[in-house]
Amino acid sequence: MIEKIKDNFLIILLFIYIIFCGVISLVEYKNDAKIWYAQDVEFYDKCQTDPSFSPACNNMYKNPIQKRDTLNTFGYITVCYRPIRLLSILMPLFVMIIVTLEFNRKLRKGYFKNSIMRIGYKNSFLKLYSKSLKITFVLPFLLVILLICCYFVSGNFDYEYGVYFYRFDSFGVENCKNIVLFLIVYLSNFILHGIFWVNIAIYNCRHNKHSIVSIVFSYIEYLLLFVISSLIGRTFFPNSTFSYYFSFTYIWSFHYGTLLGILIFSLVLALLSTIILLLSYKNKEKALSSLA
Questions:
Q1: According to DSSP H, which parts of the chain are helical?
Q2: Residue 246 gets which letter from DSSP?
Q3: Helix (H, G, I), strand (E, B) or coil at 58
């Protein structure tokens, strides 16, 4: 038990940090939403007393007020509240730090070479790589927990009403008509982007013996790819929803575009980076010489 905690200590720390960010953001939203809801109810009551009080009495405030729906509450928190919002930029860095430190430790402390003697180079690398991928499930798992908490705050899934009354569309009305399909695609995007982050980190582990250097290079490469991808989208698809797909942070909130389009882009990122990574470690002699 103690050994497992030691092996996963950094992931546990990340887990705690994300929970902390989620709790802070959820509490802030709940306090704000309580005020907003009270103001809306007060306005509605005035409309019931005097329908001429405001033009809005005949449309938005014609029916009893509902709280913002669960999905829009979730999307609003992840986009508008700083603790969670920062994860869109910091999460790749956190993943790269954890993966690099763990991967480098096993590569250069004898574990990898001993494993090669037992099961061969290819199987040893794939085993080490597959263990690194477990971190890709941390964020999706915690986002599900946050979504469940959002339901207890909201109490409904009336997405169209949330968009109409609160004028905030997190994920697109069409994308949210099938909630199960939406959640599958939404969480899959984070897993696929997580694979992309892991691949960048492991690729640089081969070319940099020092973990700090490897982490810095990995994150700089990610930011450069982020900028280049965004520029490609804006250059080749100006004034088109396709341009949004090319933004790496668009997986957090995507009211433009389709579930299929976003998923395809995430899949391409994961597949291309995996191919490049496997090719970089394909040659046993070169890989081992760089690890010496």
A1: 2-7, 9-49, 70-80, 82-85, 87-108, 111-119, 121-132, 138-154, 159-166, 179-207, 211-236, 242-245, 259-280, 284-291
A2: T
A3: helix
Spatial neighbors of 126 by CB under 8 A, at least 6 apart, are: none
Q: Which two tokens stand for residue 282?
A: 């394909």
CA–CA separation, 80 and 291 (whole Å): 43
91 and 135 in contact (C-beta within 8 Å)?
Answer: no
**Residue 63 identity (one-letter amino acid):** N
Which of 291, 269, 272, 271 lies closest to 281 in space, CA to CA?
Answer: 291
The sign of the dihedral angle between the CA atoms of 153, 156, 159, 164 is negative
Q: What does the pLDDT look like over 219-275, one tens digit per residue?
A: 999 999 999 999 998 888 887 888 888 999 999 988 888 899 999 999 999 999 999
In tens, the pLDDT along 111-163 reads: 777 777 788 888 888 888 999 999 999 999 999 999 999 999 998 999 999 89
> Own/partner pairs for 160-169, CB < 8 Å, 24+ apart?
161/66, 161/69, 162/68, 162/69, 162/71, 162/72, 162/73, 163/72, 164/60, 165/60, 165/65, 165/66, 165/68, 166/68, 166/72, 168/68, 168/72, 168/75, 168/76, 169/72, 169/255
What is the distance between the alpha carbons of residues 27 and 29, in angstroms, rounded to a whole number?
5
Cα dihedral: 161, 163, 169, 174 (round 10): 50
* Residue range 173-228, pLDDT digits in tens: 999 999 999 999 999 999 999 999 999 999 998 888 788 999 999 999 999 999 99
Largest separation between any pair of C-alpha atoms in the chain: 83
pTM for the whole thing?
Answer: 0.92
